[in-house]
Amino acid sequence: MSEPPPTQPVPPSFAGPERIPTPWPEFTPVLDLVFRHKAGIIAEADSTEARVGQDIALHVAARGVNTLLFTTTPPPALPHALALEVKEHPSPEYINNRVRHPARRQHPELVVIEHYERLRAEPRYIPHQYDPIDDDYEPPTAADELLQCVFGIRIDIPLLLTTTVSAQPQLTRPLDQWLATSHPAVTLTEVCKPVVLLHRTTAEAVEGRLEINPAGPSGHRVTMAWPTTPGVV
Question: What is the dihedral of CA 221, 224, 169, 209, to 10 degrees?
Answer without folding.
Answer: -20
